[in-house]
Amino acid sequence: MKLLTTAITTALFASASFAFADPLPSWSDTAARERIISFVDSVTDTASDDYVTPADRIAVFDNDGTLWGEQPVYFQLIYAIDAVKAKAAEDPAFLTTDALKAAAEGDIEALAEGGMDALLEVINATHSGLAVEDYQASVSEWLDTAKHPTTGLGYDEMTYQPMVELLSYLRDEDFKTYIVSGGGIHFMRVFAQRAYGIPTEQVIGTYTETSYSVVDGTPVITKEPGIAFVDDKEGKPINIDRVIGKRPIIAGGNSDGDFPMIEWTTAGEGARLGMILHHTDAEREVAYDCDSHIGRLCDGLEKGPDMGWLIIDMAKDWSAVYTAGR
Amino acid sequence: MKLLTTAITTALFASASFAFADPLPSWSDTAARERIISFVDSVTDTASDDYVTPADRIAVFDNDGTLWGEQPVYFQLIYAIDAVKAKAAEDPAFLTTDALKAAAEGDIEALAEGGMDALLEVINATHSGLAVEDYQASVSEWLDTAKHPTTGLGYDEMTYQPMVELLSYLRDEDFKTYIVSGGGIHFMRVFAQRAYGIPTEQVIGTYTETSYSVVDGTPVITKEPGIAFVDDKEGKPINIDRVIGKRPIIAGGNSDGDFPMIEWTTAGEGARLGMILHHTDAEREVAYDCDSHIGRLCDGLEKGPDMGWLIIDMAKDWSAVYTAGR
Ligand SMILES: [Ca+2]
Ligand SMILES: [Ca+2]
């Protein structure tokens, strides 16, 4: 009998220590962390007025600048530039336009001067004319070898550890976690499962045109020139409605491109949590907001607090930044 | 001790009887049923060469004519016609075109003569200019009251019981079940959870243009004129790639509009199951295939068997048809 009592006591303690394990160890002990946990508690407690059934626990997050870095330029653009360089090394005749030449030289400023047309040329040259699986094999190879210019880390080591923990915590509480990003779906799906625990079907984003054809008896889906849908600004709630068909109860982002998504989410009935990651940490990362060309954040900072959104101050609220080395 | 033994024996028997409960009671004891079960066994048995991890157990099904009826015309078109009638009853000036007049008179032939343009007029007049949630409230009200012209059943009672059982069986075996339909996503999502156990985020289909705007301080997603994507033929594998991002291992349909989806699915490596429901049952339903205007099936019957697809013979393979009354 004594043995049984000991066994039960041990089991209880083990389960209690499991229940009280910190789900967000890389978040500092500040109001931000407390607000997130108290929100999750309130929507998962069946006795709470704010209780939400698991089927409706939808959480959506922007990717660039929210779940991983985005400076000095979006990592997908760095992939595209590296792909242009590789193609040019094989065949210099590939560089048929000024935009492609600028890309091959890594001249981001010249590319930026060319505007959307120049960017689209580089995207088309590297993101079309090949099967989805061949494109993804190329991205995967790039992720295995390429290093970020200032941190020296692999790009998929530059995911934000506090956000990786948040995603995992939400899934443990029966949330479905989604990426809703201006980045390309085929690009993000290469690493979303490994880096974030997010399966391909929960990766929502921008996509190129694609075609279906049968080549020598083998069906193939091919990436074609042109962008079929831009998942940014108003495009985010529109795409969430198309793909998920439910209004999320949590939305997180870092730029004004996320404003409509967070606005739509938090306007829903019942408890909702909108959050914006403010890049305040010049020491561990990069400090930027309203004046930045990448991840410009003005409206969110100005109007977000009055709309009840949580503004996450990276420098104060995070005890760690990159997942690297963990 | 005897009590304990009895308890354990009872528990074992209960679990054994659970394991041997027929997962497909409305399927006749034919080769079709056997093939489905043996496929599912082979991909879920960890000792099998064909084992597939749960994350990759994706099953996709067409809706009209596969999961519910589609004769004499697609039920969504009947909704649209009923909606035109209701609007005309309120305001006869609503009938501004020949197509709308034909719809108000329920004159399907005149509508058909008007072709795609006439159809689009009717769709635009009933599927745009209102918030997604208002549209869905209208569909829900219609489903509660409208009756099918020949069976007298509510439309959502005309789901196929054998397919409802198949969907449930697959989910019990850790499949994710999806609808991939030429029908509208906002239309299908009104009943997919209730009728099929399929949540909104697993309903893939055709969709109209939509817009996001803030009206009097309230964010709203509005259905706009025009169809943004037609989820039929090549559109099905293209949309599966966009939304799910994985090739399914099971695909089921009933018309040549499903051919590319089943072709792409079954061309994947490893065990795959393609199936086509052949409407052979003039007595309990409607017998139709290659000559039908709705759900035309020629290529699938001609090439499907050589491609290893399972052709389900409704008359022979199903012991029940509609879910009605269950
Ligand atoms: Ca961002
Ligand atoms: Ca069909």
| CATH class designation of the largest domain in chain A | Alpha Beta
CATH topology term of the largest domain in chain A = Rossmann fold
Largest β sheet strand count, sense and barrel closure of chain A? 9 strands, mixed
Overall, the morphology of chain A is: globular
- Helix content bin of chain A: 40-55%
Strand runs of chain A, count: 9
Describe the structure.
Chains A, B: GO terms for molecular function: hydrolase activity. Chains A, B: Residues 1-21 form the signal peptide. Chains A, B: Keywords: Hydrolase, Signal. Chains A, B: InterPro entries: HAD-like_sf, HAD_sf. The structure is a homodimer of 326-residue chains. Chain A has 326 residues and is α/β, with parallel strands linked by helices. Helices cover 41% and strands 18% of the residues of chain A. The first copy, chain A, contains 14 helices and nine strands. In chain A, strands 1, 2, 3, 4, 5, 6, 7, 8 and 9 form a nine-stranded mixed β-sheet that branches. In chain A, 43% of the residues are buried. Chain A binds chain B through residues 55, 58, 132, 176, 185-186, 189, 199-201, 203, 207, 210-214, 218-219, 221, 234, 237-238, 241-246, 260, 263-264, 267, and chain B through 55, 58, 132, 176, 185-186, 189, 199-201, 203, 207, 210-214, 218-219, 221, 234, 237-238, 241-246, 260, 263-264, 267.
